[in-house]
Amino acid sequence: MAAIATEVHGHHDSHEHHKESFVSKYIFSQDHKMIGKQFLMTAVFMGIVAMLLSLLFRIQLAWPGEGSDFVSFFLGDTWAPGGVMKEDMYLGLVTIHGTIMVFFLLTGGLSGTFSNILIPFQIGARDMASGFLNMLSYWFFFISSILMLSSMFVESGPAMAGWTVYPPLSALPQAISGSGMGMTLWLFSMAIFIASSLIGSLNYIVTVLNLRTKGMSMTRLPLTIWAFFITAIIGVLSFPVLLSAALLLIMDRMAGTSFYLSDIIVSGEMLTNHGGSPILFQHLFWFLGHPEVYIVLIPALGLSSEIISTNSRKPIFGYRAMIGSILAIAFLSFIVWAHHMFITGMSPFLGSVFVFTTLLIAIPSAVKVFNYITTLWKGSIIFTPAMLFVIGLVSAFISGGVTGIILADAALDIMVHDTYFVVAHFHVVMGLSAVFGMYAGVYHWFPRMFGRMMNTSLGYVHFWMTIIGAYGVFFPMHFVGLAGAPRRYYDYSVYGDFDVDALNMIMDLNVIITIFSIFAAIGQLVFLFNFFYSIFKGPKSVQNPWKSNTLEWTAPVEHMHGNWPGELPTVHRWPYDYSKPGSEVDFIPQTVPLAEGEEEH
Amino acid sequence: MVSKLIILAVIVLGVITVIQLMKVYELSSKLSNKNEAEISNKHNQLNAKMMIAFGIALFIGFVWLMMEYGWTGRGMAASVHGHEVDWLLNLNFVIILFVFFVTHIFLLFFAYKYVKKPGVKATFFAHSSKLEMIWTVVPAIVLAIVIIFGLRTWNTITDIAAPESIRVELFSKQFDWTARYSGEDNALGKYDYKLTTDDNELALMTTNTIDSAIHNMENGMNGITALEEKLNDPNLALSVQDRSDLITDLDRKGRLIRLLHQMKARHDSKVDALAWDDIIQKDTLYLCVNKEYELNFRSKDVIHSAYFPNFRVQMNTVPGFPTRFKFTPDITTEDFRKTKNNPDFHFALMCNKICGGAHYKMKMTVVVLEEDDYNNWIESKSFETFRDKYFAGM
Fold first, then answer.
1. How confident is the model at residue A9 (pLDDT cuts 50, 70, 90)?
2. Alpha-carbon distance A278 to A281, whole Å?
3. Which residues of chain B have a CB within 8 Å of the CB of A418?
4. Looking at the complex, does the CB of residue B122 fall below 8 Å from at least one CB of chain A?
5. Is A78 within 8 Å of chain B by CB?
6. What digits encode the pLDDT tens for the residues B13-24?
7. Of A300, A337, A439, B212, which shows the fewest CB atoms inside 10 Å?
């Protein structure tokens, strides 16, 4: 390790001072800090788009059939004549909202941003193992984002088969207009996205394994790095399966193969495809799809482990148990995928195996929650905005996690499958938790990224508006689901024929949900203002604003090529020596050697 | 509309006010040289109290939703296994609500209690095997209970239907449902999607329907002969695109007709009887109370999902892949209306898998009848079998 470190260091000495052009510094940068910021900016933009889409369909759900200037402003006369969106466009909005949120914001944005910024900083490396591949990873991400956005502007509309794009609906343009050009763009965008994710992940794995500085053993790694490392491994193992699913779908659509199609008559046209299975696609999709949940969640949990420890001024409780539970969750995440498919007609016996494995995953998740809560116990909690978001994350992880127990239980899944109960569940456990983790990360590492501080008070306003808005949206949504309301319904008028009570209840709750979602969206404006304002005008940050132990705070505030002037820091202890007895100050950075007679944790 | 605007205006104004206040605050803090990294005691205390306030609001909001909208907004189950499912749901809910409340109380209370106080140092507490063991083992035990009860119910529900259970097929297509009763023999006729014609929408397989499908494909309106004539017609000017579409269509029909001829050669006329006595029923599905049904599902185009919220029944219908679900309705529509206090209530079959633009309108009314009424209804249908309808249409 030391040899590599010196070599890298030697290499850098000769290059450190040359002047970079605008293009190589800000656009085709190979510096992990700049690439991380590029990921963040792209993700923020994509997140705004996806949030806007959700507002549009929330308006439709709360006030179906009522013209809205807001809707008409964004969708125009083609897709929303008189301000009432068309059925097809409603499905298109839902689909693109889901795709962007899951892949572009919470995978590319969360893991891309923080893996890039934190891995080299926290392991004490000059940069990623391959700066070039890292740059490539971002630009693939950028191209796929552009393709995905452009799919919303094609004449036949964006992909409309839901973010899970189940064939045959997604394979047959005759079945829905979005399965034409929109779906083609969706598939190509995702294929490029997967390439980006794979290149990035391989880079993260290699960097964590090979470029740790002297003394940084695996058991001294901050939990953030463990989280990014495991996430990257999950990504490498599961994303290729999604790529194969997408490629087979592309072939079914363009080359006349029958991987997913069998015995179909659509719009009066009898297709000759025979022998394919739509269920095969679901297996392939969810083989990525479920690990994907953890690709989204684990980095958020990693970030929060670091933040909760720093701001409680206490070591994270059960460091090794935390690593163990991340590993257990990562392993189990590969053998639970078919719990998304209990009612597809899959063998019931297979179903029961997946019930078992799925419920097992609750154990390491519970361990993590209890460890977070114990970290707070007898701490000395400082409520930075980042810390608030971490508490929000733990809360959402609990609220969303417990409803997972109901969905994992196949017998109960029969009644709530594909209802709003599912929508509420995964928005809380995956959406909210991960978004809270991401916000926590942005607030906490903003000084590291931009050398300036964000405004704390605006951060408080942002947090409280977000969490109140979010629970206001998703708590009632569980009840909409328990009332039986199916998801992806343009409106619920069908209940008028069957059960007026249910209709009234669903409509009441839908109005409440939409009002809270507008409230939460406005909360995000507070963040955007704070974020962009502080990049340019925020007060200058000191080197270690949160009095934290990890290595990124030992590097100078000004960004420099190679991160540290002179030698790389040497690590002597784990990153969680907060309020250690016998120490004058309540934090001991990793670079401080053990005092005489001091025991390592 | 007006109320909407007012709501929006209030929210927007609220946020503008907040931002303005923040700006003033920011200016004043700049004057006093405030460092954003140092969180003041006042701010810490404020957020600590907010944690408690938030916790109370969260619990009150949740309890209010529970009181107002109940365990299950869809009312009690109307099928035998549905009661078991509801019992299981309640058990699971008790467990998860306990976990939800207890963990939230700890989380928010600790966040409040252990907020930084000047002069008080945090306790260095990094590890405790005993505690970690407790919260690994206890969830494991609770989950074992959940798994055992859950799988027991799941196995009963997905068990094979009794031989005497009534076979009914539900056929789905964009955007409606068709039911097919198996008739006197309680056996559903065979089918093959290639036999679909206007007279045989469900593609049932009999010697006659095979012949007519072959005839239709060879000599029908857009049959092979017609297509060939069109392509060879020297007086017809076709664009390149139209010509290539016709050739694709002809090619496809050429393959299908070969398969139809093979089907004819292999067909055993003994199975015809299975299909002839089937009864095809649109709009409303009639079921008999306390009889076990085996529902067989089929899809013509894309994946749909047969979803009966009141019976706690749901199963996807997959093109090219038959699926099944067995259940026993145990209360009639009439009686259920009394429990709901709603004389217009109906059981419903809805589509619950995104299937196209009009997905949300794809439904069928379900009526559960007393045995006598059901027998009368099925009696009235005895002259409307597939055979009757098919030959009437000839």
1. very low
2. 5
3. 305, 307, 314, 352-353
4. yes
5. no
6. 777 776 776 677
7. B212
Which residues 66-85 of chain B have a CB within 8 Å of chain A? 69-74, 84-85
Residue A126, both tokens: 């000059």
Identity of the amino acid at A215: G
**Domain locations along chain A:** 30-554
Smallest CA–CA separation between B269 and chain A, in Å?
23
Distance CA B223, CA B169 (A): 30
Min Cα distance A172 → chain B (Å) is 9
Question: For the residues A182-202, what does the mean pLDDT come to?
Answer: 96
pLDDT at residue A8 is higher than 50: no
Instruction: Write down the pLDDT at residue A18.
Output: 58
Residues of chain B contacting residue A162, judged by C-beta atoms under 8 Å apart: 354
Q: Do B136 and A484 touch (CB under 8 A)?
A: no
- Minimum Cα–Cα distance from B57: chain A residue: A468
Q: What value does the mean pLDDT of chain A take?
A: 91
Report the C-alpha gap between A465 and A96 in whole angstroms. 25
Which 428-447 residues of chain A touch chain B by CB within 8 A? 447
CATH of B278-393, one of 3.40.50.11540, 3.90.1700.10, 2.60.40.1250, 2.60.40.420: 2.60.40.420
**B51, B99, B116 ranked by CB distance to A380: nearest:** B116
Residue A362 forms contact with B (CB below 8 Å): yes
Report chain B residues whose CB lies below 8 A from the CB of A497.
346, 348, 363, 365
Distance CA B167, CA B291 (A): 11
Report d(CA B302, CA B314) in Å as an integer.
16
Cis amide bond preceding B175, omega within 30 = yes
Computed on alpha carbons and rounded to an integer, the radius of gyration of chain A in Å comes to 24
Please tell me which of the candidates A376, A414, A497 has its beta carbon nearest to residue B313.
A414
Could you tell me if B356 lies within 8 Å of chain A, comparing CB atoms? Answer: yes
Alpha helices in chain B (DSSP H): 2-31, 41-69, 80-113, 129-158, 207-219, 224-232, 240-266, 272-276, 333-340, 371-380, 386-393
Tokens of B302: 């894309």
Distance CA A138, CA A30 (A): 10
Nearest alpha carbon to residue A464 among B50, B96, B39: B50
What is the fold of A30-554? Cytochrome C Oxidase; Chain A (1.20.210)
Residue of A nearest to B355 (CA): A169
Per-residue pLDDT band for B31 (boundaries 50, 70, 90) equals low
Q: What is the pLDDT of residues A61-88, one digit of tens each?
A: 999 988 888 888 888 888 999 889 999 9
Residue of B nearest to A506 (CA): B73
Alpha-carbon distance of B195 to B200, in angstroms, equals 7
Distances, alpha carbon A533 to alpha carbons A38, A566, B188, in Å? 17, 33, 69
pLDDT, tens digit (0-9, with 9 covering 90-100), for A391-443: 999 999 999 999 999 999 999 999 999 999 999 999 999 999 999 999 999 99
CA quadruple A449, A454, A456, A461: dihedral sign:
negative
Chain B residue with CA closest to A317: the answer is B126
Instruction: Looking at the complex, report in whole angstroms how far the Cα of residue A561 sits from the nearest Cα belonging to chain B.
Output: 26
Chain B's closest residue to A371, CA to CA, is: B132
Residue A12 has pLDDT above 50, yes or no: no
Q: Where are the domains of chain B?
A: 205-275, 278-393
| Structure confidence by residue, pLDDT tens digits, A281-302 | 999 999 999 999 999 999 999 9
Angle formed at CA B285 by CA A172 and CA B213, multiple of 5 degrees: 50
Asked if pLDDT for residue B343 goes beyond 70, the answer is: yes
Probe site for chain B from A249, A286, A367, A395 (most B CB atoms < 10 A): A395
Dihedral sign of CA atoms A201, A206, A207, A209 in order:
positive
